[in-house]
Design brief:
Radius of gyration: 27 Å
CATH topology of the largest domain: FAD/NAD(P)-binding domain
CATH class of the largest domain: Alpha Beta
Strand content: 15-25%
Number of helices: 15
Oligomer: single chain
CATH architecture of the largest domain: 3-Layer(bba) Sandwich
Largest sheet: 7 strands, mixed
Distance between the termini: 54 Å
Helix content: 25-40%
């Protein structure tokens, strides 16, 4: 028999027999629910047989027959009531387990998020796509879908979403486009490193979303709950349904602060900060500017993360400030990296290592932050070096800059659009979905093996726009993405190592070496980051002006 655990309270299963009762009891279950009507199959034992065996074993058993494909709202309510009444954990079964999983999903919809329900059932081996609208609607059958319909729906109003909307509008007038995003404020996230280094003011990195939505594009201020790609539909919170001819998915990443025990409670105090949050980047500078002695820890979680260089950028700018203030000799800098290398593209490592040496920073590889005790100023790391048994160490700190673990958003990970690891599954060249040919993705949420940076999104937006318009016109993809990403590594105030690379670590410099040699720290790269890139972001990238972002064309071969 199969035990398909949904959570600690309930496990579901295909059809059982009386002989399985002893095994169910031995597994610790105290109650059984049968959701399969008697007589549905010729080889099926009756509930009376199951009930007699359960009673003899001291288990409570209930009969709630539900016809396949016809789970009513009342059925779900009744199932939920049983779960509350029966001693747990509960074992439920039907022919395949699907009806029991569906009943559980609908019965929990008022108390759990759609993503939580879909993730639990998916892990147990059950696809709840057929009832996703009811789950989003609190477990009840929607009476009015309130459909809106657009030529193109874009999920996410960040750098990728607004850029691709603008790029589409410049290529094909008259498109009916909607951007779905609940946020009021749009942030220039690459600027937060500079805020944490005392270079930018936080306010310069934020603008209202309404001021940035391209003219003629509809903004639906709502979060996405689920996708129905088979119906060309996106389900919003509240169970509103938005239909599309073509879908572009780019909601960014989820910063999983809760994955580190104790971190949420201490962020913004006790010397714990992060440039990965708008409201915390100023606290980084406050800590750095006031620190004259002690231990400063900078953490980096396992990949993938947005802007893989950002954790060490914070370290370099902090070290530079302490160097200039003459207090560096009193400060112990520790870089705790869950990975095994300083930077993923080896050509840039020598220049970075010179700054590690300049700031006398200790590099600790394979150290992954798992817990923080803010008041005690202690951080615990899991140390998992290759070919050695994992251990844990606890380190004191006076200041700690944390880069949080990162995943795709919950509603993406549980969707039919995601690969096994939870990322949107695209062709890495055309950025078209591998299964649904009217779906594209760009930005941090898709699974192409490129660096997750704003510079990558700047290159991807024209590629997606070109290919979507080609599809509208009845053609094949015309543009390809080469994996370009850029990471301006702020190694000191006034100098940057401008890392630019594509798939496989291929160097893809934008400028001649005499102007900017990306493998060396340069003043020109700093000026680019400080003075040129912010206006390019606000006034060009988000407005469909593709400066130095012309897409490569598909080979004619």
């Amino acid at each position: 028999m199969e035990f398909k655990k949904i959570n600690d309270d309930i496990t579901v299963s295909p059809q059982i027999t009386a002989e399985h009762i002893a095994e169910i009891k031995a597994a610790g279950f105290r109650s059984i629910i049968c959701n399969r009507p008697d007589g549905e199959g010729a080889d099926q034992p009756t509930f009376e047989e199951i009930h007699a065996a359960a009673k003899a074993a001291g288990l409570d058993a209930r009969y709630q027959p539900v016809v396949g494909g016809k789970v009513s709202d009342a059925d779900a309510d009744a199932f939920g009531a049983m779960l509350r009444e029966l001693p747990g954990p509960v074992f439920a079964y039907c022919r395949t387990g699907t009806r029991s999983a569906t009943l559980w999903s609908l019965s929990q919809a008022k108390d759990k998020s759609p993503a939580e329900i879909l993730e639990a059932t998916k892990a147990a081996g059950y696809d709840m796509a057929g009832v996703v609208r009811r789950i989003v609607n609190g477990g009840k059958t929607p009476t009015d879908e309130g459909d809106a319909k657009f030529d193109i729906v874009i999920v996410g109003g960040g750098a990728a979403g607004i850029s691709v909307a603008s790029s589409l509008m410049t290529r094909k007038a008259g498109l009916n486009i909607a951007i779905l995003d609940p946020a009021d404020i749009h942030y220039y996230q690459p600027g937060w490193t500079m805020v944490g280094g005392g270079v930018f003011e936080a306010e310069t990195t934020a603008r209202t979303m309404a001021s940035l939505i391209p003219k003629g594009v509809h903004w639906i201020k709502s979060a996405v709950a689920a996708f129905e790609p088979q119906n060309n539909a996106v389900i919003l919170d509240g169970c509103r349904v938005v239909k599309y001819d073509r879908l572009i998915v780019c909601p960014g990443l989820k910063l999983n602060w809760g994955a580190v025990d104790g971190l949420v409670e201490t962020l913004g105090k006790n010397g714990v900060t992060s440039n990965y949050r708008f409201d915390l980047a100023p606290y980084t500078w406050e800590l750095v500017s006031k620190m004259t002695q002690g231990k400063a820890i900078f953490t980096q979680p396992p990949m993938p993360i947005k802007c893989a260089g950002a954790p060490q950028k914070a370290m370099y700018l902090s070290g530079d400030h302490w160097y200039r203030e003459g207090v560096l000799k009193n400060i112990d800098i520790q870089f705790m990296n869950a990975g095994g290398v300083l930077f993923g593209v080896k050509d840039y490592v020598p220049a970075l290592e010179k700054y590690v040496e300049k700031y006398d920073a200790s590099l600790n590889f394979f150290h992954n932050l798992i817990a923080v005790d803010g008041p005690a100023k202690k951080a615990t790391f899991k140390v998992a070096k290759p070919d050695t048994e994992a251990t844990e160490i606890t380190v004191d700190f006076d200041m700690m800059h944390v880069c949080p673990p990162q995943t795709a958003p919950d509603f993406i990970r549980v969707s039919p659009l995601a690969d096994a690891a939870g990322w949107i599954d695209v062709d890495q060249s055309t950025l078209r979905h591998k299964t649904y040919d009217n779906v594209w993705s760009l930005g941090d949420v898709m699974n192409a093996p490129n660096a997750k940076t704003a510079a990558a999104a700047r290159m991807q937006a024209p590629v997606v726009a070109e290919n979507v318009v080609a599809d509208i016109n009845g053609g094949a993809p015309v543009a390809v993405y080469n994996g370009y990403g850029s990471c301006p590594l702020t190694v000191e105030r006034g100098k940057i190592v401008l890392a630019e690379f594509g798939y496989g670590g291929t160097l893809l410099p934008s400028f001649p070496k005499w102007f900017i040699d990306g493998t060396k720290p340069t003043r020109a790269a700093w000026l680019l980051k400080e003075q040129i890139l912010p206006p390019i972001y606000w006034k060009a990238m988000l407005r469909g002006r593709e400066w130095m972002a012309t897409p490569e064309k598909v080979s004619a071969e």
